[in-house]
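Recap from last week: sequence in, structure out.
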Amino acid sequence: MNSLDLEIGLFSSQNELSERILNDRAFIERTRLRKDRELIAYRDEGEWLNRLREQNKMLIRHLCDLTNLSRSAIQCIEHGRQRPSLYTLRKLAYALGVEPDQLILLVAEDYVARDAHLYETGLYQPDRFPVRKDGKELSRITWQYAVGNSHQVRLGSHIHAIRNRASITQKEWAKRSRMGATILSKIENSRYNLSTVPLLIGVAIGLRVPLDELTSFVVLHQVRNRNRAL
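Predicted structure tokens:
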């Protein structure tokens, strides 16, 4: 699976999941997680990696070779002792043959399901998540980005534009996301990377945008940046 395939795979219809996504093992794990949420407290936070690796019949040493991660790093992730960055999750997705946005969403939903406050926001339940009325705006911006009309613009500038169009002040954003206003300001000014799952969740809650759309948007931005650097 090359980077072009991954970019195309990120943008299935917003209203209908593509067959590619439905057959993606990370997406299937997301579905299983929602059904078995009551059991999540009895599992390691990183069990998703162990399950996907075993489904792929892949030994830890093979995953190390494909990702350039150490054996101890992978074991720490699998046993919930270390939370991987978005960059690491993308590397794991390529190695495991799953869509990067689906893997990140799997990890994000696992994280949310373990936090009572986040779970009550309905963050990953489309019928409950408080998406603002002009929620299609992110889809439009994301699609423009996908076809290359705005790929030179920094990620923070896009996030700033989304917040302005929704008439959300920085103070409101900080209160909703439960994050510091200074960090959010740095994210908008591209001086602080949106590099972890908790940050991604906080931005989604604060801007009232669907987590799946924001994740696809961020992953595509990272893929394009990597390709320009090669």
